[in-house]
Amino acid sequence: MKLLVTGGAGFIGSAVVRLAIARGHEVVNLDALTYAACLDNVASVAESPLYAFEQADIRDRAALDRIFAAHKPDAVMHLAAESHVDRSIDGPGDFIETNITGTYNMLEAARAYWTQQGKPESFRFHHISTDEVFGSLPADPSMQFTEETPYDPRSPYSASKASSDHLVRAWHETYGLPVVLTNCSNNYGPYHFPEKLIPVVILNALAGKPLPIYGTGENIRDWLYVEDHADALLLVVEKGELGRSYNIGGENERTNLELVKTLCAILDAKRPKQSGSYADQITFVTDRPGHDARYAIDPSRIREELGWRPSVTVEEGLEKTVQWYLDNEAWWRPLQARAGVGQRLGTGSTGTTTGSPAQKTPA
Ligand SMILES: NC(=O)c1ccc[n+]([C@@H]2O[C@H](COP(=O)([O-])OP(=O)(O)OC[C@H]3O[C@@H](n4cnc5c(N)ncnc54)[C@H](O)[C@@H]3O)[C@@H](O)[C@H]2O)c1
């Protein structure tokens, strides 16, 4: 299969690119190379004859038409997006333009190409989305997001992703574009950009800095190892039923405080401090405005219909992740110098970074 992967220089997209090439697919990686991108993420496959790179912005329709015509993909896996909730609070405009207008451009470019090819039934437009479109769950463990859960996005990021999901469904219903959708829980793993919670905790711990926890740390997230997500995405693009969406989750619910304590325990074992525990560096900071209380995915559909299973437990995945950051300082160190990284974002004060140095935190 020849896959056009958008956002393939980002965290999840690069995992998809690496796995797709390992499985013998051809990949065209389309990425604008924003602050969140890193071509080192795909360095291991960059010399493969199966790999091509196109630097392009999904807001640029003419560039998309050129890339479709030049590469003639069998399927699109659309991951390019602005992805950081805190940045969406400070500057929602980029999220509207990339996540909504950019997805509209991708749909129109794909539709024009698919029509010009004679509307092959085998073509796929796979839209990769988030569980955050479903809103926030109460603590009751029997309640989980299913594919039937009504949309209720609550941040500029999740609202922009919900909008793009609606566009994708509309292009299927109205124009017959062969689409599949996935909504995934929080990912973690190698190459996670160092403004997100897990890398921030690991790197702040090693640097002797505070480990910032929003609010009381009771917010619950459902964690999925990024390579298991990439595996699920390839399964859906190859075998997913047309027009259907699949929820992908690791069934690994943790409060943020539990997660940070687990990371501290792994670091205590792997890189002990001279005295005390990394957990001593935990610091509670002002909560994110509109912070969703709980996300939890019911992955029954992808498990029962497509046979997908995650390959690692969250304990194994976190252990591998910590080890990866310990082994790959040359990857993460330069990224810490990028704009906004290491600063408290998303407090609701327009467009500026805030907080005393002691409060500078994750995401
Ligand atoms: N990270 C998660 O936990 C998570 C969970 C569920 C779903 N998702 C979704 O998965 C996708 C990938 O997430 P991620 O965490 O890898 O994001 P990321 O921020 O790490 O990477 C996004 C990539 O998209 C590129 N990009 C951004 N704007 C672009 C534009 N206008 N044109 C072309 N390329 C552009 C960036 O350069 C970057 O390489 C997103 O659609 C996100 O909504 C993420």
Describe the structure.
With 363 residues, the protein is an alpha/beta fold. It has a domain at 2-194 and 223-252 and 293-312: 3-Layer(aba) Sandwich (Rossmann fold), CATH 3.40.50.720. 39% of the residues lie in helices and 15% in strands. The strands form four sheets. A seven-stranded parallel beta sheet has the order 3-2-1-4-5-6-11, sandwiched between helices. A two-stranded parallel sheet has the order 7-10. It has a two-stranded parallel sheet with strand order 8-13. Strand 1, helix 1 (11-22) and strand 2 (26-31) form a beta-alpha-beta unit. The structure holds nicotinamide-adenine-dinucleotide. Nicotinamide-adenine-dinucleotide binds next to helix 1, helix 4 and strand 5. The site of nicotinamide-adenine-dinucleotide (NAD) has 31 residues, from helix 1, helix 4 and strand 5.
